[in-house]
Amino acid sequence: KKKLSLPLQITSALGSLLLGYDLGIISGALIPIEDELNLSHVQVEFMTSSILFTSILGSLMAGGVADLFGRKKGLLAAALIFCVGSIGMASSTSFAVLITWRCITGIAVGMGLVICPIFSAELAPRRERGSLTSFNELFINVGIPLAYLVGLVLRGQANDWRWMLASGSVPAIFLFVMTCFLPESPSWLLKNGRDSEANLIVNQLVDPSETPEVRARAVKQTLKEMKRDMYSQKNMASWEEMFYSKENQEAMFIGLSFAGFQQLIGLDSLVFYSVYTLTNYGVDETTALQVTLAMGLLKLGFTILTTMIVDDAKIGRRIPVLVGGTFNVIAMATMAGATFFPHSLTTEALLIFGILLFVSAFGFGYGPMCWLILAEIFQGPFRSKGLSLGSVTNRLCSFLVVSTYLSFIHTLGYGGTFTVYTFTCIAALAFSHAYLPDLTGKVMGVKNSRGD
Questions:
Q1: Element (H, E) at 126
Q2: Judging by beta carbons within 10 Å of its beta carbon (0-12, 13-18, 19+), is residue 212 exposed, middle or buried?
Q3: 124-141 b/e (C-beta count within 10 Å ≥ 16 → b)
Q4: By C-alpha distance, which of 110, 119, 137 is closest to 55?
Q5: I want to staple 82 with a disulfide (CB 3.0 to 4.6 A). Which of 121, 172, 255, 262 is the partner?
Q6: End-to-end distance of the chain based on CA atoms, in angstroms?
Q7: Cβ(448)–Cβ(383) below 8 Å
């Protein structure tokens, strides 16, 4: 039992809160920004999606930063960049300046998305790895309703959108301070020949109430597994090996495909544009803001539920994905069916129901499972770069969805757009059923799902 593992995981996962907070806060800020800066729908798309594009650059950098400087310093850098970017966005005087600061902030988002799951997977004991690594998705979902609540409170105040964007510096400062008290990953220390430091940290993570014999065995076994899994720095896979090694091809196919499908089903179009979508469809702005808060709370609640059950051998990784994916199909089809008809109280209610069901199903399945599967599916030498590539794929697909959503609406209407997403949901569900492995309680690496 690892007495300190839970607070350590919570602190490391705070990096994911930064993404969740930005997802939520921009939804409430879009309308006042559009009004003040007189933006077209294309400019709104570009402003919203720009942070996702540069988060790809942050994701590409993150694996190398985490391997070279350590997981802890990587998180500190992400927090600092996000803090500066939030203040810069709030003080923007033009569309160009606002875009520049959102791009800078995106680098921090991409770094956090990669480094947090690595940190969590390497600090978590095997039996708790699923629930603790899922805290990364959990904290994204803590950030979303927190930002929605802040947006609801600030809306209508003087300079409301500026205060909304500036508020992102608060969780960034909190992350920076808390990360200062974290130990470095023992796996990273072992890879860099710092065995004595790794030994000391692992000793601190073992429950002090255990007998000295049990503690000694636990430390020895943990260090042995870390060495076997991560080797040393010289054995980390090169980029060429990532793409061409037969040992890694299956993990690459499953991991990157699943990371892409998680976003292609359209979740971020709803999260980023929830208020915009509902108000343009005919829902009053106050109700739309309240719906977005309910979205965040439901997504958070179902993510917590999955976190609690994911390490149960009878449930594992596949069941939440397949159950959640099925309800994603039903929810998106409901939204498509409702919006093919003229606006009425009935279609409005069905649209809101579909949105709430969709985010709930995502919180139960694809949301927390994506980062856990990426953290588990790659073997030690491939893990850091594998998570970087998975995050890049995920953010690229998110950018594709967010940067085209309003154009789709203007071209296909709500019904046509949601129909496209319905078919994507069906494809994601079929892929998950056919290929997704289950590594519950097993050594990390896709081949271990078969007991190889």
A1: none
A2: exposed
A3: beeebbbbbbbbbbbbbb
A4: 110
A5: 172
A6: 27
A7: no
Which residue from 119, 132, 138 is spatially nearest to 182, judged by alpha carbons? 119
- Rounded Cα distance between 441 and 452, Å, is 14
Positive or negative CA dihedral for 158, 160, 165, 168? positive
Number of Cβ within 10 Å of residue 320's Cβ equals 26
Tens digits of residue pLDDT in 335-372: 999 999 888 889 999 999 999 999 999 999 998 888 78
Cα dist. 187→2, 179, 247, 262, 359 in Å? Answer: 16, 17, 21, 28, 35
Residue 171's closest CA among 191, 147, 194, 196? 147
Nearest Cα residue to 133 out of 142, 143, 122: 122
Compute the distance between CA of residue 270 and CA of residue 331 in angstroms, rounded to an integer.
12
The two tokens of residue 46 are: 């570009």
Q: How far apart are CA 236 and CA 223, in angstroms?
A: 18
Burial class for 432, CB neighbours closer than 10 Å (0-12, 13-18, 19+) = buried
CA 329 to centroid of chain Cα atoms = 21
Q: What is the dihedral of CA 411, 416, 420, 425, to 10 degrees?
A: 140
**Predicted model pTM:** 0.75
The crossing angle, in degrees rounded to 10, of helices 135-154 and 95-123 is: 150
Written as six digits, the tokens of 117 are 């799951």
In 3-state terms, what secondary structure has residue 287? Answer: helix
Give CA–CA dist 438/318, Å, rounded: 6
* Residue that the structure tokens 């054995």 belong to: 235
CA-CA distances (angstroms) from residue 140 to 222, 271, 300? 29, 12, 8
Angstrom distance (rounded) from CA 71 to CA 330: 40
Please write the tens of the pLDDT for every residue from 44-101. Answer: 999 988 888 888 888 778 878 888 888 889 889 988 999 999 999 999 989 999 999 9
Q: Yes or no: say if 393 and 256 are a contact pair by the CB < 8 Å rule.
A: yes
Name the residue among 151, 147, 134, 112 with its Cα closest to residue 297: 147
Measuring CA to CA, how many Å separate 42 from each of 47, 263, 268?
A: 9, 21, 17
The DSSP output letter for 183 is P
